[in-house]
Amino acid sequence: MNSEPLIITEQKSPCGEDLELTLIVGKEGISDSVDVYEGAMFYQEWAEHFSVEKDSKELDESLKMQRDIIPSRISKLKKTFSERTNTSFPSISIFVTKVEVIETIAIGNKTVVRVLIRADTGRFITDGQHRTVNTKIQLFELKRTDLSNHTIGMKLCVTNTESIYDAREIIEQQFSDFNGRSLKPNSSVNKFYDTSSNLGRLMKDIVTSEIEGVGQIKDVVAVQGNLKSGKVYTFDQLRNFVFKAIGKTETEIEKLLQDDPESRSIFTDGVRKVINGTFKHLPFRLMHEPNWKKKKDEMLFTKAIFCEGLAMAANCYSTQCATQNTPINWDIFAGIEDVLPICDKADPLWKETGVTIHKQSDGKTNVTINKNGGSRKIALIICNALDIKPSLSLTL
Fold first, then answer.
1. How far apart are the first and last CA of the chain?
2. How far is the C-alpha of 158 from the C-alpha of 99, rounded, in Å?
């Protein structure tokens, strides 16, 4: 199943006008191809000339370079502005494709420039999108004209590219660097945008790989970490699947790719095959039904613990093939839906084997996942059902 071609629409000036700024020439290690300027602009300029990226409901996740807007953060900012006048915020960071330098002046040990950002110049906010939304609300919806001459510090990064998307790796890396030590973005978002490591780049490439009869991996994996119709696992869970299926830790994989760059293509091919070979046999179709939320809660295969257990079983199978010197045929996982009740977490099998815990409350049975060794138990059950020899680590 092939995905439809994606349409890329760059952000331009919302007001359709050029913007002139006075800035200081800066220097950072972002990239040799990127020019950096530091300065400030008025709230009015900020609100009129810059917008934020569409969220993942409107924009395909493979095109996103930022996390989705979090409504609760906007509400908190609005509350702050309604209750306080002593507001102060850190600088924002903006990427643009180009600027026109109108004038250059040396002042002290700094170089000051007047630059012009044309209305049709591509632009993207990497840090400060929630503050941007709030500023627009304050000025345009709440008519807070008293804020129009307030200033916000800014870092302006000029990519010198035709399209802002030509610099997406640099943009995403800055987002990850700014937020990597913060708890604000969830782990799926931050890890997806972190391309500073070989593993990070490999995993980002992986999500566009095909799953037979299903679509691309990104069609069933929520990069933003927010599950919705069709999305079963988070990007963080996919990474963990890879680690368990390959049988190596993140550090071990990174070292392997660093020490032997030529092994990257072989390793990537192997990861694609194990994901396709196992995922194509899972009933992802059920997550497209109108009551998908209810089904996700009721089913077992949609849980992170099952994803991890499936990966462990896949590792056992590949180890078995290597030991017996037989070719890998991932169709051994065909029919897993028929031989195991993976669509019903309340099935007695899962209770009897300790995968789930059943508790009575007000005459109802509440079924919860046993996180204490549950994935290992699932792996053993899968191996037994599909006639795969479990590894010693699973049986001990």
1. 41
2. 7
